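[step 3/7] fold_predict: job queued, chain A
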Amino acid sequence: MMNKELIKDYLAEFIKTPLPWFIERELKVSETERRVITIIGPRRAGKTYYLYQLMSKNKENALYLNFEDTRLMEVSFKEVRDLIRMFKEISGKEPMYLFLDEVQNLHRWEMAVRELLDTRKFRIFVTGSSSKLLSREIATSLRGRTLTYTLLPFSFSEYLKAKNIPTQVLSKDDEALIKKELMEYLQFGGFPEVVLEKEKEKILKEFYDLTLFKDIIERHNLRNISLAKFLLSFFAQNFSCEISVNKILNFFKSQGKKFGRNTLYDYIDKIQDTVAIFFVNRYSEKIYTRESWPKKIYLADTGISRVVRFSTDTGRLMENAVFLELLRR
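[step 4/7] structure written:
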């Protein structure tokens, strides 16, 4: 049961506090009362700040609920409408826009969202860091009633914007600077905090550990921690490469460790759920060939590999960056 005093404190703070400064992102989403707009992406890709960007046009008519805020942790899906009523009491108006951040932390969130959508009163936006959890719940309760978008870390053009580097009417010196920045972008990636802060290596290590322990091991209650660690490290090192399940199984057999093929597939699925790793099928007209291994690995951000990479391979980094640019389109 939600604590009303904590909720009032949260709502009052949201109403009084101006939105923080943000770098405008290139992702464009639709606005409709008939469908929920779902935004997924890896941890720390900037989903919260993207919601700020969307609500900046009409904050006085918006309600933002961050389900990672401790004051909202006791809220149940049945109490969301009561929470909206409390907002109306405090602000004097009912919100037109609802922004639900990290919604997978609200148990049975899809039931609450479906009920709100049925009222036709709100335009609803939700974010999450778990593609499988969101897609599973959408499939059961919100099938055909959502539009899903993926927000990745900064593209190179967004990276240049964040660093106030001009991209129009370039001199030779400007071109040289952009080439230098491209190499840094490939090496450290485009996570907003990494781009804007100085301690890039430490921040990337923190992101990597959070993805491993919070988004993979804890979220899915995995018991074989060493297998989860190995797989994430293996994928981060072998980006822009084809990999096979047999290669992984043979490595563990050589180390005297045994586990079933189904266990391996299950752990790979959990890692893919973080939206930090993408597995691309081979092109073929035959569905069996498309869906079978080997698959090619790409990272949601080249900086992820920095934590476990032992050498610089500009060709592979560039290939990964091109894949991400195509994915954005």
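[step 5/7] annotate
The CA atoms of residues 160 and 166 lie 7 Å apart.
The chain has 14 helices and eight strands.
exit 0
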